[in-house]
Amino acid sequence: MNTTFRTLMGACALAALAAGASAETITVATVNNGDMIRMQGLMDDFYAKHPDIEVEWVTLEENVLRQRVTQDVATKGGQFDVMTIGTYEVPIWGERGWLVSLNDLPDSYDIDDILPAIRDGLTVDDELYAAPFYGESSMVMYRTDLMEKAGLTMPEAPTWDFIKEAAAAMTDKEGEVYGICLRGKAGWGENMAFLTAMSNSFGAKWFDMDWKPQFDSEEWKATLDFYLDLMNNYGPPGASGNGFNENLSLFQTGKCGMWIDATVAASFVTNPNDSSVADSVGFALAPDNGLGKRGNWLWAWNLGIPAGTQKIDAAKAFVEWATSKEYTALVASKEGWANVPPGTRQSLYMNEEYQKVPFAKMTLESILSADPQHPTVDEVPYVGVQFVAIPEFQGLGTAVGQQFSAALAGQMSAEQALDNAQKLTEREMMKAGYIK
């Protein structure tokens, strides 16, 4: 009996060793945000379903991540098997053949369930080149108690004039409460994400149909003047150094009357474990100027597979798991519905439990109101709401963002910042061959 038992145990051990030896290891590069960190804590579910795959994580700050994955995908370096990439990169890289098509994901994955607004931005010539992990737009988050104290009522779809009126009424600088917090930190994905989306609602645009830069237009002047006026009079000190995380902290500690930023922030500002104002937060659509465009953006963090990988099947198995309906249900069971990755699937917004989440409806409405194919009031030659989907935009957006951040810091006038933006953008577009 003992001999038989030992023989069986030995066989099991050998089988386990063989399985371990044959396990394929994939490397996943990801951004260091809360949703991705949470996923790393839920990997037991993946391993239970895929015992033959091991996952190694490379978790990086956003700017470093972009640099590393761009270098790897462009050279087909094969350093990563799955990459976390944004809506900006996917169509450019897909068109260049740098990403693996995901059109052959199984029927059970239900590609048609992905929100069209998000899916369209990840598709080139009917090929899906990345799967969305979470999607977002931007919206107004505001303190309901301060709004009531000011004697005002936030409309569901406010104008910029109302935002200015409310910011003035809610500002109490002596009490360290500022009427509005907005991004001021330089970067194409920082202050320029906000300002480009805002400029759309003012009738501005980056380029005309001949790719001539438009920072010398009245519409851009109106955008920047309004932004600087808001921030200088009703914003927090040091705003030129504030990005998403800094403003999140300010809002959570009760120092902001309003904050216009990513819809994904809603779960953080309403979480009583992190936010001192969690029980008095309201939501509204991003503002407009009556021109038919709201000042909100459209973005998704997605999982893509670089063409340089030698492990496509294992990479696809991971992407399918991480962006599936089942993963959403897993997060809900562990963390509650308010903390599931938002903004990607229609079925989530039809779920009765998720509909009880206070920001669910406004998030969906914000996403659906953004139109990357027609982002501006006038016709333009590019797509993208808070970015221009050309390879040169990363450098251009950051360079322009530095000018506008300097204007916010009082280092130059709005006129000088716009003049600098016009000249540097013209120079780069001539160098790249868009204009002569």
TrEMBL record:
Record carries keyword Chloroplast: no
Signal peptide: 1-23
UniProt GO cellular component terms: periplasmic space
Keywords tagged on the record: Signal
A Pfam family annotated for this UniProt entry: SBP_bac_1
Subcellular location: Periplasm
Family under the similarity heading: Belongs to the bacterial solute-binding protein 1 family.
Protein name in the entry: Sorbitol-binding protein/mannitol-binding protein
Annotated source species: Celeribacter baekdonensis
